[in-house]
Design a protein that fits this description.
The complex is a heterodimer of chains A (236) and B (183).
Chain A: H1 4-9, H2 14-32, H3 41-56, H4 60-80, H5 82-87, H6 89-94, H7 96-120, H8 125-131, H9 138-148, H10 152-176, H11 182-204, H12 206-234
Helix pairs in contact in A: 2-3, 2-4, 7-8, 7-11, 7-12, 8-9, 9-10, 9-12, 10-11, 11-12
Chain B: H1 6-11, E1 19-22, E2 28-31, H2 52-87, H3 93-108, H4 113-122, H5 131-134, H6 141-182
Antiparallel strand pairs in B: 1-2
The chains are: A mainly alpha (236), B mainly alpha (183).
Chain lengths: 236, 183
């Protein structure tokens, strides 16, 4: 008798099929419940896929081999971020000096805290490399972690958790800090919590959203430069 | 009628994916509503001919521009990696590719239509491409068990600090700059 399950599971399309299907299902669920951060599609889809891989007794490497084209496409997504960056250019030019200084401070803080706080608790080098880029947008963070000798799989989950945390608790924190300026709120949310923070900022106002996009993209670029430096300086 | 509005949708630069659907009278009808409105309906008989010709042309132009933009993005992805390789620095090639694309926009002083359209099509689904990496958690559960405390502290305390202090600094600097301009 043919082992249909193995036949399906080993098919080149299988991984892509289950990935897109769980992502699609998770997105529907998310929208049905009014887009709460805690039900973010990536979180739900990842949970579904993790359960599926365990049930089917499928190794992650085998799954990854099937979906590597989706994973590689992350790079294309980053290249396309040139479009929103270009669109925000007038805004960046107009407020270049406050944006530049806030960016340097925020980016240093994001990377420094991701290395120094765990360092107090003692960690191995790969932990710092995994955590350092956590505030950068997913695609870039994963690539940085990969290049610094971290664990990209763990970085991916950490980045998403960072985004969720910032989107859920960020606005409250900003209120406590008496940050009332929408531009500053958006910038902080985008810088610290990338796309999820940016989505949250757009719920505050369009101005907050625009500054959040700027914070997210510029921080991603600066993290590319700062993360290797910070890991070299702070991790030892 | 859904598809008479499609060329306008195209011109305003929103996500357009052209679809050919055979209508009830078995004519090939072009319409291009997909990810935006989700109102994918079959046309009723005989009412939709008015705007089809121009729609078809518009959709074809959209299509070829999007393909051009896709080729450009793929080429920049490769170019970025090549440059990253030559520089021998830990800079993701994709970040270089992105800067190259910004440089191209800057040279022409505008965003290429096709790139904008490709971005509109792909951006609602950007997080999908992140799922394979995140699923890597199943392969790193042992690691996570070792370092869950460090990870939690970095996420909770690190992110809180970053948001609070960055927000305060940005507010101070932005307001100071606005005051300066007024004076």
């Amino acid at each position: 008798m043919t082992d249909w399950l193995a036949l399906i599971q080993d098919h080149a399309f299988f991984g892509i099929l289950v990935t897109i299907a769980s992502y699609g299902g998770a997105t529907l669920l998310w929208k049905r419940f009014g887009s709460p951060a805690l039900l973010h599609p990536v979180l739900v889809a990842t949970t579904i896929l993790a359960a599926l891989l365990m049930t089917l007794d499928m190794r992650y490497e085998d799954y990854m081999a099937q979906v590597s084209i989706l994973h590689e496409a992350l790079a294309l997504v980053i290249v396309l971020l040139a479009v929103p960056l270009w669109r925000q250019m007038p805004l960046i030019v107009r407020a270049h000096s406050p944006i530049a200084w806030s960016l340097v401070a925020g980016s240093t803080l994001a990377i420094g805290s991701a290395i120094l706080l765990p360092r107090v608790l003692q960690s191995a080098d790969w932990v710092y490399a995994t955590l350092a880029p956590k505030s950068a947008t997913a695609a870039i963070a994963v690539q940085i972690a990969e290049q610094l000798g971290g664990m990209p799989g763990l970085t991916a989950v950490v980045v998403i958790s960072t985004g969720l945390f910032g989107a859920v608790f960020g606005p409250g924190l900003l209120r406590v800090m008496r940050v009332e300026d929408d531009r500053a709120k958006g910038f902080a949310l985008g810088l610290a919590s990338h796309a999820l923070g940016t989505a949250r900022a757009f719920q505050i106002s369009d101005v907050a959203g625009a500054f959040a996009s700027v914070g997210m993209i510029l921080n991603a670029l600066l993290t590319v430069a700062l993360a290797p430096l910070a890991v070299a300086l702070l991790a030892n | 009628m859904e598809f008479t509005a499609s060329s306008q949708t195209g011109r305003t630069g929103r996500a357009v994916i052209a679809n050919s659907v055979r209508s009830h009278d078995n004519r090939l009808v072009q319409h291009s509503d997909y990810s935006v409105n989700r109102r994918l309906r079959l046309p009723s008989i005989g009412t939709q001919q008015a705007d089809n010709g121009s729609d078809l042309t518009a959709a074809r132009e959209d299509g070829s521009k999007t393909i051009e933009a896709f080729i450009l993005v793929l080429a920049l992805g490769i170019a970025g990696d090549a440059i990253s390789n030559v520089l021998n620095a830990p800079v993701p090639g994709a970040a270089i590719g992105m800067l190259l694309l910004v440089a191209i926009f800057a040279f022409y002083e505008r965003v290429y239509d096709g790139s904008a359209r490709l971005f509109e099509i792909a951006s609602p689904h950007f997080t999908l491409f992140f799922v394979p990496a995140a699923t890597g958690i199943v392969a790193s559960t042992d690691l996570l068990a070792q370092v869950w405390l460090q990870v939690t502290v970095a996420i909770v305390a690190g992110t809180s600090l970053t948001i609070a202090i960055t927000g305060a600094i940005a507010q101070y600097l932005l307001r100071a700059a606005s005051r300066e301009k007024k004076q």
